[in-house]
Amino acid sequence: MSLERFIEKAVSSWMNGEGPNSDIVLSTRIRLARNLKDFLFPTIYSHEEAGKIVSLLEENMRENAPEFGLLEPVKMNNIQPLEKRVLVEKHLISPHLAEHSREGACFLSEDEKISLMVNEEDHIRIQCLLSGLQLNEALTLANQVDDWIEQRLDYAFDEKRGYLTSCPTNVGTGLRASVMMHLPGLVLTQQVNRLIPAINQLGLVVRGIYGEGSEAEGNLFQISNQMTLGKSEEDIIEDLKSVVEQIIERERLAREALVKTSNIQLEDRVFRSLGTLSQARIIESKEAANCLSDVRLGIDLGYIKDISNTILNELMILTQPGVLQQYAGGALRPHERDVRRATFIRERLKLENNKQE
User: Fold this and answer.
1) Which phi and psi (to 5°) does residue 136 adopt?
2) Which is deepest, 47, 126, 158, 208, by most CB within 10 Å?
3) Which residues pair with 118 in a beta bridge?
4) pLDDT tens-digit readout, 248-291
């Protein structure tokens, strides 16, 4: 498969960089946790019950075409470990679903904005993923999917506590809202270490791009709500949106300060990173992420004019181990992945240059 065709197939719609504030906010994700009324929770249910839940959703999808479009079922037992890893790296399923679920499945929309995870930590997790800062829009889409399911299946719900979930921290709305942000200005001006504790005190949490336990490589941070009980969905969204908008403003100010005080040093950093990406024959994932962050900052500041600003969105996914091995057509050792990553990036930049000519 040609590189151009592979990228076309591998890139999800949230990577297109067309959403509001997409120079800083790469994506918005809404996730709703739900369980079915007449089934044991995933921690203690049987394989038979897990299989029945998948079948119920599959039957309803087949017999009642939803207004948001058909969702294609993907059963974890029917795909290879490498394919599962690719779905995780593209943020379409969780590591838990890929590795630990019994009779796990996901239902995906064609544009990959909607991912319905089944038999993860809860029976159903509805996920909507959009480009840029689109919290309200993502919640509206998630609620469409939620309402469609609830019209056909009974949820485990308590009048006082709200939706019942396997983990107590999700009880209530079952809503987790998050945004993925590119914050090189705040990192380079050493403001981010003071900012994270302040965000945590507001009931939000800051993580790496793959959620809990992941590292914030490439100046990418995922910010999400912690509390789901005692607040409405609208309040959760508005609280997160307010904080994110303040972070966006601080990031813009930090970038302006860097241009004023350290312009030549910043420009040098950007073009050194571009040189590394353009010429390297071996590159590890962490170095690639940091160089891509510098190049994306250079594009946003106007230093680099002949590369699309979606390149960070694409390459932070396309250079992950699973996707690299999918493009290579099989398993690669770590060193081979580093060589393949460098080759992939060089070819992608060359493809970008060809488009501009």
Assistant:
1) -65, -40
2) 126
3) 105, 124
4) 999 999 999 999 999 999 999 999 999 999 999 999 999 999 99
